[in-house]
Amino acid sequence: MGHGPAAAPHGYCRVDEWALSGDGAEEETIVAIEVAGYNVNSFYTLAEPSFLQAELLTSDGRPLCWTGADGERGFEAGELRERLRRTQRYSFQRAFTEAYRLQADAADWRSSAAAAPGARADWARVSGRLALPRGVPLPAFPTLQPLSVCESGAVAHRLPPDGYRKDRSLTGVGPLYLGYPEAELGTVPSLLLQEAFTTERRVGERPYVPDAALRLEARSYRIVDFGRVAAGFIQAEVVCAEPARLYLMFDEVLSGGEVDFLRLDAVNAVAYELGPGVHSLETIEPYSLRYLKLLVWEGSADIRGIGVREYACGDAVRGSFASGDPALDAIVAAGIETYRQNAVDVFMDCPSRERAGWLCDSFFMARTAAALSGTTLYERLFLENYALPERFAHLPEGMVPMCYPADHFDGNFIPNWGLWFVLQLGEYAARSGDADMLARLRPRVASLMRYFEPFRNADGLLERLDGWIFVDWSPAREWVQDVSYPTNMLYAAALEAAGRLYGSGDWLRQAEAVRTAVRSQSFTGEYFADHAVRTAEGLRIETGHVSEACQYYAFCFGIAEPDTYPELWRTLVERLGPRRRGIESGRAPGVAPTNQLIGNMLRLEALSAAGRADVIAAELPELLGGMASATGTLWEQDEPIASCSHGFVSHVVHVAYRDLLGFRHVDPLRRTVVLRPGQSGLLSCAGALPVGGDLLAMSWRYADGKLHIETDIPDDYEVALEIEGPYAWQRKERPG
């Protein structure tokens, strides 16, 4: 029925309420709750004592039974020893891999009152946590089946000739990174599976038939293809006539035709030792995959009913978008799918190796949430997690975690992400009017700004910041000391946002002073340079270090505008961007290309601010079309070397509504709408944008030498049109 709970900060928990369905007849209902307690630091779950608090209520709220009660009023507790405990970490950012030793009756406790839930255990009370409501809709759990069986084959056992691939999640266990050292592990699937070498491959797709069993003998495998990346719980029904060892290996893409289960620096494998009989398998943890490789190492098995029970946002799509351009529509659909997978509670970076609530990613996803659901519920929950703790352990006073709820025992943080936190708060205020949240976060913003004060040099610029200074997944990430100009551009924007939010003239003046200093120091006459280094004689600009990302920072954060830097703007539009790939020598030589996170998104923002929807429409297929086609989702980087479902890229949905459809600006508080349709070079477009309980619809097309616009917007909205050229506008009137 469900999976949870929703993420909560240290010292708190969130309460999920699940409605038990039934036909009203007198019947026995069994409520089975399986709990995994990891007790290690991670980016996904917290290193706090694990617990279960549950109660079963009638429809009128009367409690029937609850944890901690005795007799008929209590739950029966047991320890499920089928899951092996001493396993390796799944990734540096998440807890443990799943490995099981199962007999055919292992799951009977879930469906039979006569079956005890494992080895009986006694309840032990733990210190209470403050309970919070879930705050967002419950997730959705549709089941996705494979489309095809794309490969079968056989493997043989031999040691890897170049040694084993091991990442920090296996080798880095210690006081700052909790887990089991390699020598203490009961099983290490990541090493064993590197000893399985393919000896026979039969490639060729055939439709997958759920009821038809895939027969697997020892040392044989099948690969099934779900047609797109899906995020959720892997399931299968396995029948064994003899003991068998089964491995599920998976990934979002094929690498050289193979399922590289270690591609993500995560162990995308689940291990099962199965006794004879029928096993209904389903992982307790969610994963992300398009391709699933089923490998029987020992014994034999018949496998049917393969699927992924998706774990997705329960309130993702209320609007619509159709441009008539198949490539653009596929990109928007991929953006929606990416959002679904990364917004089950907090805004996550990816549903795979991390499942972490990252700042900066959250800035972009919050816009998507508003465009798709019409609410700020998810954003409020995200910000509330940052508002509640008194302090954040292991971090410098005033700094906010780069992702949260998470544990950062090593003290790592991204100072830039704290600045994005302030920018997001400014936009949240405009979207929600939530004065309470602004007041709660005011001390946090003030402390953050105080944190940066000691790093301000004589020019008012941040210099030699501590932590991981992140600008872009490109060479720009190396050009950040001593004075990072993109970071200072972002700092100016955060100062301005904080000043406007809280009425601080000092912050506003500091913002303008930072911008003035950046313009004076960073601009070389052709480009904005990425950084300057401190020498004995003073600051020296490293003019050889110029990134595409830095130019986008300048135009996005108030340093430059098209009319103040016209030559650079012309270069940005005509010679930078996705069309320069592979021909750098002919387009801005010496300027390091940007990457997806976050330079590509900043390029779209710079183009949008200048009204260049035509360039956006032309570039989106080059930028994201290949991703949408390959996985049905959008990626963290330009190439599939990292997550292939990354939440922040769902921002393209917001871009499509704003720049392609033409909902230029919507103010839900003042109930005003600015429309700018027909400026993208498309011949037509239609869509509907949810805003609160309303649905704002618009369609337009070019015909007879003019733009024909139809809108269906509530009458109490004030609507303004920004259009060049002749047009005809029909606004539908709503009764009342």
TrEMBL record:
Superkingdom of the organism of origin: Bacteria
GO biological process, one term: carbohydrate metabolic process
Domain Alpha-L-rhamnosidase six-hairpin glycosidase residue range list: 319-560
InterPro entries cross-referenced by the UniProt entry: 6-hairpin_glycosidase_sf (IPR008928), 6hp_glycosidase-like_sf (IPR012341), Bac_rhamnosid6H (IPR035396)
SUPFAM superfamilies membership: Six-hairpin glycosidases
Pfam families linked to this entry: Bac_rhamnosid6H
Name assigned to this protein: Alpha-L-rhamnosidase six-hairpin glycosidase domain-containing protein
Lineage of producing organism: Bacteria, Bacillati, Bacillota, Bacilli, Bacillales
